[in-house]
Request: fold
Amino acid sequence: MQHCVAGQKVSFYLVTVASITAMDIEVDIIEFRVPTENNKTLFVWDIQAAFSEAFIYESVWNIFCQFGALYLVKVCPNAGVAKPGFYALVKYFSAAQASKAQRVTHGRGLFQSSPLKVQLSTKQYPHFFPKAKPLSHSKCQDLANHYLGFNGWSTRIITLKDISNCDDANRLSPVPGHLEEVTLKYGCIIEVTFPHHAQSCRGVGVAEETMRGNAPDVVVPKRGKLQKWARDKAVVNAFEKVLLMVLGNGKVLVECRMERDDVLQDHDPEGVIKVNDIHWSLVGPGNQEEDEDIPWDLSVNM
Reply:
């Protein structure tokens, strides 16, 4: 497959069971990562001050989601030096859908009597801007459901293991008079399957937490939470390998980037979950949304 650039005419080879057919068509590439490109962000301003932030948020979301899947909508009051009112930031996963939304909505009142101004962000990020983060578990589900439908994908647990004892060699001796620190750690391998596209890929997730003491009323519920976190992280890791190719006619193709761990036998998961092989950046309790980490220092052509 040739390199694909979102929003441009590209040539790619669609491999089917029957044949290999060369096609020339517009393709929009959707990744399961936080969108950071300026051509996916709309800046909406001249919103009247008569509305509440909740009403504006709901109105903006309902209007702009008609053009494609939204990653985020954010409503902010105007700065003190400007006239009273609000502005909104709308971020899409697709540059083509953001461009279409801008063309259709700019200069229209939509939910108010006076026209709104809608422009694509022109903020230029430096070339060394860090690689976009993976989506949260809930965002991955929302994006997959939007493009593939609720029956267009499924998950299967390959293994879910307690790997707490893997770090016994590094465990510190308890301090006299203090409760012993206990580290609970779970590793999970999950396979995400796209049945209508004959594609699948696997992801690895690890979750751990250290606590003082090992009372059953504390440890038992914590084990359940860590198992869920490990499963969620494995799903996110699997979706990181997935590309959605949205064709100009609305059809969606799925491509999975295969890795070594994806071809291991189901009955031999030991080669995947090893402490030394884990990317510890995946570790951390809870499913924290990434919205607040997005740089909203935007500029537009007025």
